[in-house]
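User: Quick one: structure for sequence A, then sequence B.

Assistant: Sequence A:
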Amino acid sequence: MCVADIMISNPITVSPADSIGTAVRRMRGSGYRCLPVVQGTRLVGVVTDYELNRAANSPLVAREPWHDHFLLDLIEVRSCMKRDPLTVAPEAHIREAARVVCEGDVSGVPVVSGHILVGLVTTSDLLRHLIRLLGE
């Protein structure tokens, strides 16, 4: 079975110029713990809940709630995204995606064809597949 069989097609994304506040809202709304960062359709990075939490709790961010929200909407995703993220191809075996997730210690891996984002495979997708296999 290949990654394309279990991946999330057309995942929620952000652009490098989006605010980290936008990324936080999209991440919360989608239930993902990572978001692909795209320029058009080209994958340029990944932003995770860890990086967003670090940016939101930076000592450079004031502690007044209204000021925090104001700054979170000014700081761009490009300031905290991981460039050149680990990826897998849609035709890769699911075992390869699981290996990348485990060895990279990441919660999700963008699925790319060339440099074009075509999906996202998460630890939840891999676990759902494992449950199906164990049930058979």
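Sequence B:
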Amino acid sequence: MLTAKEQSLLDALEPTARKKLIEIVSVEIVGARKAPTIRVYIDTPDGVSFDQLSEAQAWIGTCMDRLDPFPGAYTLEVSSPGIDRPLRTPEHFERYAGETVRVCCRQPVDKRATWTGVLKGFRDGCVILDVDSEEVSIDYKNIKRANVKGAIDFTA
């Protein structure tokens, strides 16, 4: 689901993140080629505090300076995954079973490239969704992007 460049940045960040008990949820490179934005989403089992974000911005920035991923300027953004949390690993698909998710495929499955349904989990190399009471199986390698569809309950 990550580009080769995004994966290389993730691989470089993960050892330090593990030592700090932080999960690198995902890395995205967006924007113009000459001055891209690198977005690093982090999390912990208890969520992410402002202090943790600030500390992570510092060590991730230092790591990026060493890596120098792009000639010239780039912008670094470090944040929590937010309400529409990206799902990247088989473990993510297991952990968020029961949530409504949106999955975008590289190649259409049953003539559809985008699926929204309740995540049932991960089985035999596939993400399993319940879409309108029908089970849909999407090969993990065919997933371009996936995220939890956040919902806010204003009645609570």
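Helices lie at 4-19, 50-67, 90-95. Residues 105 and 112 are 8 Å apart (CA to CA).

User: Thanks, that's what I needed.
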